[in-house]
Amino acid sequence: MFNSVRDDLRATLDEIRAAGLHKPERVIDTPQSATVNVSAGGRPGEVLNFCANNYLGLADHPEVIAAAHAALDRWGYGMASVRFICGTQEVHKELEARLSAFLGQEDTILYSSCFDANGGVFETLLDAEDAVISDALNHASIIDGIRLSKARRFRYANRDMADLERQLKEATEGGARRRLIVTDGVFSMDGYVAPLREICDLADRYDAMVMVDDSHAVGFVGPGGRGTPELHGVMDRVDIITGTLGKALGGASGGYVAARAEIVALLRQRSRPYLFSNTLAPVIAAASLKVIDLLESADELRVRLTENTALFRRRMTEEDFDILPGDHAIAPVMIGDAAKAGRTAELLLERGVYVIGFSYPVVPQGQARIRVQLSAAHSTEDVNRAVDAFVAARAELEG
User: Fold this and answer.
1) How far apart are CA 211 and CA 330, in angstroms?
2) Catalytic amino acids?
3) pLDDT, tens digit (0-9, with 9 covering 90-100), for 320-378
4) Residue whose C-alpha is closest to residue 299's, from 226, 371, 357, 241
5) How far apart are CA 104 and CA 228, in angstroms?
6) 114-125 and 140-148 helices cross at what angle (nearest 10)?
7) What is the dihedral of CA 275, 277, 283, 286, to 10 degrees?
8) Contact 231, 109 (CB under 8 A)
9) Nearest by Cα to 218 from 358, 53, 96
10) Which burial class, exposed, middle or buried, applies to 398 when counting CB atoms under 10 A from its CB (0-12, 13-18, 19+)?
């Protein structure tokens, strides 16, 4: 059977490579950090890492590693079960309580990833009588989660409040029983922040719930690192927050839904990714508790990340690179052409800076970019080296 399919698959892969859209997976032979060893052409080399979600530099933090070692001895390696059978330990309940308190929500439920968390919300809460109104640039996991539900689907232009109101009006006039507005807190390909106060104002006007995927914000956005709801002063007005333990919160894996108590209670009974997926490994849960301890006293890390971000954005602007505006640690350098973005990333790696070129279908056609991600673990020298490498790579590419 497969012989009849193989040629078609090979032809598709050839088309991807010819279009400059192939995404190689480079091998790192060190722990995740601001500096890593990357295998390039069979020759491992030390390079600056500017493409990880390790915003606070906690992926290799000694206290987090120590907590993980202790957890292996105390709780074991894996649960070999789902939560409602025999997969719940004290450490899982403690982490859920700590996340609820940190995020200002009534309860929290853990998932194996934020992709699963987003995949488990919509089908559980909404049916054909309801409507979900989604930002056009929301993460793929939100899009896939919405597809699993029978709710009517409305889409508004990115951060466009006039369009959001039009969609809310249409959903309301169409007789939707429940209306759920869903947005990324920070849009991962652009670094843009959602206008949550305005979204909540419209939700109040049209009696809608608000859901935010805050994966690229929790830990370092907002005065206390509690994410975009804290940044905009709407922590008590957001009904559902989804997020990940795999970015600023230590960089491992795992996700969560922090929400109103009744929402979380129903998710425990009906959410399929929760009911049919193994429990989050206890070592991750325990290490995440240590991460929350660090977050509650992480002002120095957040300040350093802010300074690194401002320096990179300022210097790249001075060097006449097309960098999307903003002040988030996601700093996209716009290239346009997919092949050129890929070649730029290769030249940067040769100069000791590890970044990735993003192109279609991850971003729209013609909007290929290098998504630079700053970390508190980077030094001022690291940031300046990265900018200098961009300048040198551009000169070689255009020379």
Assistant:
1) 22
2) 188, 216, 247
3) 999 999 999 999 999 999 889 989 999 999 999 999 998 888 888 899 999 999 999 99
4) 226
5) 12
6) 30
7) -30
8) no
9) 53
10) exposed
